[in-house]
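Journal club prep, shared notes

We agreed each person brings one worked example of a sequence with its structure written out as tokens. Mine is NADH dehydrogenase [ubiquinone] 1 subunit C2. I'm keeping it raw so we can talk through how to read the token line rather than staring at a rendered picture. Sequence first:
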Amino acid sequence: MSVLPDESRSLPPPNIVNHNSLLFGGIGWAAVVLNNVGYHRPALGSGVHRQILGLSIGWFIGYYATRRENYYYACRDRALFQYIKHHPEDFQLKEKKKLGEVLDPFHPVR
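Then the structure, token by token:
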């Protein structure tokens, strides 16, 4: 995994509880539970310390995946807004139409 550049530090940190943390934490916990099942141990009752460790490692990976995701989208947004700023002729506002001008006339058939 590549290290994020220093300009990513200007972004606000993501929440501790986010979708990637929940997802990867659940995957880490499930991996330990499935390992318990594979070795014919009680699934939830044995190796609780390993379950907590798997959850913690997955949570950590999910948090940093969210940081990377936020940095990627910030770079993409910056590039798109810069393009829009330098090419305003491609992004002119269209005149607003009323809904009646857009739709065809309605003639009910009974």
